[in-house]
Task: structure prediction
Amino acid sequence: MSNVITWVPACKLDDIEQEGAIRFDHGGRTYAIYRGPDDSVYCTAGLCTHEAIHLADGLVMDYEVECPKHSGAFDYRTGEAIRLPACENLKTYPAEIVDGEVRVALG
Amino acid sequence: MDRIVIIGAGESGTRAAFALRESGFTGSVTLVGTEPHLPYERPPLSKPVNGAVQMKPICGAEALKAAGIDYLQGVSALNVDPHARSVALSAGGTLTYDKLLLSTGARPRRLTCPGSERALDFRTLGDAETIFSRAAAGQNVAIIGGGLIGMELAAVLRGKGIDVGIIEMAPKPLGRAVPARFAARFHARHQAEGVGFHLGQGIAEITDDAVVLADGGKVPADIVVAAIGVQPDTALAEAAGIAVGNGILTDGHLRTSDPNIYASGDCAAVAQPGGGHVRFESWRNARAQAEAAARNMAGGKEIFAAIPWFWTDQYDLGLQVAGLPHPDHQSVIRQLEGGELEFYLDGGCLVAAAGLGVGNGLAKEIKLAEMLIAAGISPDPAVLADPGVNLKSLLKSARAA
Ligand SMILES: Cc1cc2nc3c(=O)[nH]c(=O)nc-3n(C[C@H](O)[C@H](O)[C@H](O)COP(=O)(O)OP(=O)(O)OC[C@H]3O[C@@H](n4cnc5c(N)ncnc54)[C@H](O)[C@@H]3O)c2cc1C
Ligand code: FES
Result:
């Protein structure tokens, strides 16, 4: 049954600033949920791949999140590491908005 | 031009080696490093996780290999001959170069009082292992020097239940490195955590079990750590006849007085547009200068200009500073839920900013402040002070203007 997506309710869209991110903890793991400049939502693993730093504390500009510790950066839509010292990509998870509620598929 | 040699495999030298490849350099790159490990990051040494010293490599052996970087681990450069363009190695033999980068970093300043040989340094992985393997709960550690490194070490040791005394010549800790407002906050926090401060005190002697102060007082110490600052490692440059001052002197392109030799990182004192040379001791600077030097060695003509930035973590507090705050600047405070930001204006122009909060709580704001500094704005102080005004919107309107 691994191809069945289980959606987990995460927060309200309004809980996240536009061009912002929040931390979301679930099942003993931590994630970051982003609201893009166009109000679409995205979800990635919560910790930077350089050191274990919460990315939700970082600055979101356009579709980029910058790590608050050493300024490594990721494209949060794809998880791609786009600036050193981050060099390993982030894992991403499906996210969507249903009636103003954000839900994520953490599979 | 096909041979580049880099002396010093710290943050700066290692970053430069990779940056050479990133800028398309296809010749040989040889990285010479005294220390017997893979290149590693120093900041984690004073920020252990779960009490264990972290060995955080800057890169793996595979990454060095994949980039075609010849890393001579545990090898020292003994001297540089700028005429023959060669470097003599401790392992025997010489390397010849077309361009050379000196990224020799800095080494701890030594005490000169009687018993000073008893004091441990805190710069390398080896130093950290020595300190943390000896320091156990219930012991007394005396830290000489209340700068960033000494204060970070004190925080870590308190977390392990070790008694810590800090001895500092100046009347206040962190005076040189951190804006006064935040230095006072860290000082108070350390006092609340039980760190003993001995301020305005010189040192007479270090004995088996104590540090004897100039006024005759004794600070009990099973272990003594000297954290009284670092000196740029300029010996190789000096012996090679290259101009040095407080660091290896470079022009804006990071080139030394020898046109084939560059310098970057903690060892480099870089010419400023307004005159004089400035040397930084910070992680980001080591990387940013490495990248600029690498591009220039590979044929670029870039002038190094980056806004200085550093961070320090003590207990659960994180401070970040962008730009160079000066006591003469106009200070504007913004109080936020997670902490406090201080902006520094010079003749109305935003030149620096600092933020202290729990963890990385203010990192976002400092990043935006840094971009505002780069944009060269002269903001209304009332707007800066108002937490209701989003710095991001300020930046967007500055960029649109
Ligand atoms: C404990 C600690 C904590 C720190 N924390 C922070 C922090 O929180 N934030 C921050 O911004 N900065 C911090 N720093 C500062 C930062 O680590 C330095 O600015 C940075 O390491 C400088 O890099 P570098 O490559 O210029 O010099 P170094 O890291 O000193 O590297 C120079 C290397 O060159 C080698 N070398 C020297 N001479 C020779 C030779 N002749 N032949 C071969 N090799 C040679 C040395 O052995 C050394 O390995 C910290 C430093 C320490 C020690
Ligand atoms: S922890 Fe994210 S860049 Fe270092």
Observations:
- Chain A has a mean pLDDT of 93.
- The interface with chain B takes residues 19, 51, 53-54, 57-59, 61, 66, 68-71, 84-85 of chain A (CB under 8 Å).
